């Protein structure tokens, strides 16, 4: 990862590749930003996601027969209300919003945009990007996010862990502004389960989501591309879900998996994306020309079992020899990808 120079375009026009539909109350619950939790009035036109089923929970958390007997009219209504609240809490914020993230490792100038700037310096940069995207994506909202490299792969696959104090500073800064934080673990020589468990304690913060990067699941970083299996990805989701249930953590959390090479996710067709508490996001990574990046995205799009997609772009770096996108794709090109990405990040 190399340090990046931020170049903000003067004007962006986004073309959203989505259909519209009439809804009688689509609801996307956001526990971090309650003001976003507004049911759509009857007859109002609202954006229809390309994969709407992937944005909803797979089964209700509370059964109407949970009490073990027949309920009277008042009891039955109470049960229905509880069931509805549970369902709303598990529906995805991506129904009505896209996420824009700035990627990197704090205090590491050669590792992405977050390493180049302090928290106070990065805020206006974030706001400028978000303003452009928010104007361009119509009725959909933009949620800003920090995408933090929490576990960095070192030589021989050892992992350097970012200090908890720094992580919590970014989490608090983001939470105060209604932003999200994604914590990314590069896995290294360790198992996917071990990497996932290292991230779990941060789920106590409602604005925190998780990420795993198979590229760095190796003992030879920068010399070979690493990989994970479908079974390991499914296990990671189960670990997250179990932890949330055991610790009384409500709602759903996102788990992002990166890919730019076929070997990075073994037996990809066996990856599951139907865990009730975990929303799996498939990120198209890698730098290069628009043609190459579109080809990579098309390869990832084939994995319809992971329907929610993400797209990563690489700004021109400050360090000579570091890879980046030439030319960098325009936002309207990004949103014309099929299926459209819901999470966009800049390194």
TrEMBL record:
Keywords: Signal
Keyword hit for Signal: yes
Keyword Signal: yes
Signal sequence range: 1-28
Protein name: Lipoprotein
Organism: Treponema vincentii
């Amino acid at each position: 990862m190399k340090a990046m120079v931020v170049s903000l375009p003067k004007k962006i026009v986004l073309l959203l590749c989505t259909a519209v539909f009439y809804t009688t109350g689509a609801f996307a619950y956001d526990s971090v930003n309650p003001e976003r939790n507004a049911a759509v009035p009857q007859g109002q036109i609202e954006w229809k996601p390309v994969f709407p089923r992937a944005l909803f929970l797979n089964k209700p958390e509370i059964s109407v027969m949970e009490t073990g007997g027949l309920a009277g009219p008042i009891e039955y209504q109470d049960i229905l209300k509880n069931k509805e609240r549970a369902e709303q809490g598990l529906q995805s914020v991506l129904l009505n919003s896209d996420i824009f993230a700035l990627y990197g490792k704090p205090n590491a100038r050669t590792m992405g945009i977050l390493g180049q700037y302090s928290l106070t310096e990065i805020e206006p940069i974030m706001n400028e990007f978000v303003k452009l995207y928010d104007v361009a994506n119509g009725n959909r909202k933009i949620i800003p996010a920090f995408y933090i490299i929490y576990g960095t792969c070192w030589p021989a696959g050892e992992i350097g862990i970012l200090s908890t104090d720094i992580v919590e500073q970014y989490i608090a800064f983001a939470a105060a502004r209604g932003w999200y934080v994604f914590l990314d673990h590069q896995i290294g020589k360790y198992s996917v389960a071990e990497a996932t468990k290292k991230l779990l304690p941060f789920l106590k913060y409602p604005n925190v989501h998780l990420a795993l990067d198979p590229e760095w699941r190796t003992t030879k970083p920068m010399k070979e591309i690493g990989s994970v299996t479908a079974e390991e990805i499914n296990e990671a989701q189960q670990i997250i879900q179990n932890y949330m249930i055991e610790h009384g953590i409500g709602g759903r959390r996102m788990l992002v998996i990166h890919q730019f090479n076929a070997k990075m996710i073994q037996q990809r067709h066996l990856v599951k994306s139907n865990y009730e508490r975990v929303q799996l996001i498939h990120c198209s990574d890698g730098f290069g020309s628009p043609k190459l990046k579109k080809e990579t995205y098309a390869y990832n799009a084939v994995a319809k079992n992971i329907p929610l997609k993400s797209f990563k772009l690489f700004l021109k770096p400050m360090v000579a020899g570091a890879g980046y996108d030439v030319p960098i794709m325009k936002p309207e090109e990004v949103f014309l990808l099929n299926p459209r990405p819901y999470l966009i990040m800049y390194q």
